[in-house]
Amino acid sequence: MRSHLFLPCLLVIGALAAAGQQEPRAVPPGAAVNAAQAPEHLNRAAELAKKGQYEEAAEEYRAALKLDPNSLRAHRELAALLEKQGEREAALEEYRLAVVLMEKSGEIRVLAGHTQPVRAVAFSSDGATLATGSDDGKVMLWDARTAELKRTLTGTAAVKWVALAPDGNILATGNSDKTVRLWDIQAGEAKASLSGHTKAVVSVAFSADGKTLASGSKDGTVILWDVATGQLKKKLTGHLFGVTSVAFSPDGKTLASASFDLRLWDASSGELKTTLTRQSVMINAVAFSPDGKLLVTGSEDKTAKLWDVQTGEVRRTISGGDFQISSVALSPDGRTLAVADWQNTVRLWDAQTGELMWTLPLHSALVGSLAFSPDGKTLASASNDMTAKLWRIE
Fold first, then answer.
1. pLDDT digits (tens, 9 = 90+) for 132-156
2. Is the dihedral of CA 235, 236, 237, 242 positive or negative?
3. What is the DSSP string of 195-219?
4. 286 contact partners, CB below 8 Å, separation of at least 6
5. How many helices (H) and strands (E) does the chain have?
6. DSSP label at 194?
7. Please, what are the domains in the chain?
8. Would the CA dihedral through 159, 165, 171, 175 be positive or negative?
9. What whole-number distance in Å separates Cα of residue 293 and Cα of residue 295?
10. Of 313, 315, 318, 311, residue with least CA distance to 285
11. pLDDT in tens, 21-37
């Protein structure tokens, strides 16, 4: 089992000053000698924690922070320890203080520029570009390494979802005006507006070869589009309520769509393969594992489930938050599951053991979209607080 105390530091939070959070105190020059003694307390704390002596370990961490209030290691390891003891509020406070330090160091980068809630984030296949889509009708393309704005695409209704084609040349948006738009990234212009839905389009996804685009709408349908021609190939019906999320399997042969039920379709023929579940709560998000063997869902019932695609059985159910789940994302190696909720929090879980690794107070409002970079070293988040954020995992 992975230790909470030696995980990579992945913490983000927005608008701390507005929320009245206190920043770590600067260490006065005269305190340098005392600060140098802090590692001794940290090492003792880590040893005590390994032995299960949590209260004693917590006191050692606090002693280290008295000597060096700006110790990132002390804040993050104390937070993990407190969370392990069930002291959630105290843990969150330590996480927040650690985040302030990380933002100052540049480990966390805030992407600001949208004037309405940011609904979706998506990386290009090479990881160089991050696209953000917002209710302000804009798509912003960012340099994922420097966090600099590269280009802004305008001229559409509120953007509810974004996806980048595998070749990186085309971007798709799902929009509130019932359309899907295909954009030429190099030209910075919309090349096609696709009509076929009767309500807002809230999810779009490209197949692995980039030739097919799937769109899911509040009208309860999924449409498969030919990317080259913009023609409607298949309209998939059967959901009784709005479709919240669509995702292609890595091999492009299967399409998953979520509503109050979870359906798997043959991506070529459009035929229904199976319905994995029908439930009384909405499934808000769906994602395939990198090997295509598992499907992850996040629902209104505050749980994430890992489904065996072959058997249709639930392999694992993960719960722990107080709010319904809004987004899920699996790391490229399939080991880490990121789950966002309707508050402002992202939790990181070990997808293999179901162990909670971190509870992250990311934003000051709902977190609606998560995406790992292709190399797994960066996680992006989108929030109703009008920002997106990038933070390094390694």
1. 999 999 999 999 999 999 999 998 8
2. negative
3. E--SS-EEEEEE-TTSSEEEEEETT
4. 245, 246, 247, 256, 257, 258, 262, 295, 296, 297, 298, 328
5. 5, 28
6. E
7. 4-106 (1.25.40.10), 109-392 (2.130.10.10)
8. negative
9. 7
10. 318
11. 455 555 455 455 567 78
